[in-house]
Amino acid sequence: MGAVSEIFKKNIRQYGMIIALIFISVFFQILTDGILLKPLNVTNLILQNSYILVLAIGMVLVIITGHIDLSVGSVAAFIGALSAIMMVDMQMNPVLAVILSLLMGALVGAWQGFWVAYIKIPAFIVTLAGMLLFRGLTMIVLNGQSIAPFPKSFQKISSGFIPDLSGGSSLNVLTLIVGVVLSLLVVYQEFRNRKISVKYGFEQSSVWLSVAKAAALVIVINLFTMVLAQYNGIPNILVILLVLIVIYSFVMNHMTMGRHIYALGGNEKAASLSGVKTKRVTFWVFVNMGVLAALSGLVFAARLNSATPKAGTNFELDAIAACFIGGASASGGIGTVVGAIIGGLVMGVMNNGMSLVGLGVDWQQGIKGLVLLLAVGFDIYNKSKTA
Question: Which CDD domains does UniProt cross-reference here (predicted)?
Fold first, then answer.
């Protein structure tokens, strides 16, 4: 039990949010008489929060470096508007339009990253200016009106599903197979990590704890895929999200770039003296945020099947809240991609659950604000205890 307690203390924010997510899900499942976790609603939860989760992945990198980006909602709206001009008005091929939209997002990120990294203007000011600038440009591009509809192939980004193998079964067989494959990968990875720890003499937990952890993950994965299999299977956007989570988690945990981002957020001067090119790292973090903001805008436009002047409103606040609730530190240097996703899911389940029980928007906003305040307060409390 001592080992379990030690592991929990070292990962208290991440494990605490996982427990909170489970508790909130069970709580609203009871309050909604089982509606929350019905297959249709679970699928809707994924679709409704996908663009916020995409933003949270980029935002957590920005926050780890000790910065903030207030412009992502406006950038998402701007890119959605440009994609509508290209696909609807100009009848451009959707694939080419998506590529150009992501490149435009990279240019927007480079523009803001230049001012932050090289001119040394605080990110809060630069991105606040960007929020106003790109919201204004969105209005200009759309001329204050919505543009619709998008091509069917583009809409499938947000509303499409991976085709099933069975073709007519009540359960989506491909989804169940994916669940089994993912379970095998989780078990393999858990014991591969343990083997590497033994090889290099790293400190490790007991065998039964590794088995329990793998078993818990396997159960969650298969329950999740079973629920999805009872509706239309795996949404296309879920595949995109999983790919992003895997890539960014690998970069942050196993690549030099990830270590440099953590070092920059932990202590910029020390990182610079250690050979980290801090300006370049900051610049590319904002370029990356621009690309993911563009992707979020495309996902939202595809789901709405329309580019509107009001798109992206409060996206930046939801993404920032997801990162802080998921364990990122306001002072930088701390945070994980998986934690940001968990924080985003906590927000999403709360939004959906409160809507299902009939709480008004005013109460929803107040409760979300309180949760965010408590999450950051919890972070500060933990730091004071370990100082």
Answer: TM_PBP1_transp_AraH_like (cd06579)
Task: Say how far apart CA 110 and CA 64 lie, in whole Å.
Answer: 18
Residue 235, beta-bridge partner list: 161
Please, which residues have CB within 8 angstroms of residue 215's CB and are 6 or more apart in sequence? none
Between CA 3 and CA 12, with CA 9 as vertex, the angle to 5 degrees is 130
Tens-place pLDDT, residues 2-51: 555 555 555 555 567 788 888 889 989 998 988 998 999 999 999 999 99
Helix (H) / strand (E) containing 297: helix 278-304
C-alpha angle 297-299-305 in degrees, rounded to nearest 5: 95
Place of tokens 């073709």: 167
Among the listed residues 311, 289, 283, 279, the one whose alpha carbon sits nearest the alpha carbon of residue 298: 311
CA angle 99, 100, 101 (to 5 degrees): 90
Name residue 307's beta-bridge partners. 147
Residue 8 has φ and ψ, to the nearest 5°, of: -65, -40
| Torsion angle of C-alpha atoms 282, 288, 291, 295, degrees rounded to 10 | -130
Q: Assign 161 to helix, strand or coil.
A: strand
Instruction: Yes or no: say if 263 and 270 are a contact pair by the CB < 8 Å rule.
Output: yes
What's at 266, amino acid-wise?
G
Domain locations in the chain? 16-160+236-382, 163-234
Q: How far apart are CA 353 and CA 45, in angstroms?
A: 10
List the structure tokens of 17.
């949010």
**Mean pLDDT, 10 residues at a time, the chain of 387 residues:** 53 69 89 90 92 95 95 96 94 95 97 96 96 95 91 92 75 90 89 78 71 85 91 92 94 92 92 92 97 96 93 91 88 89 91 88 84 76 65
State pTM to two decimals: 0.91
> How far is 208 from 192, CA to CA, in rounded Å?
15
Polymer length of the chain: 387
CB atoms within 10 A of CB 214: 18
Could you please state the CATH topology (level 3) that the domain comprising 16-160+236-382 is classified under: ABC transporter involved in vitamin B12 uptake, BtuC (1.10.3470)
In whole angstroms, give the CA distance from residue 167 to residue 183.
24
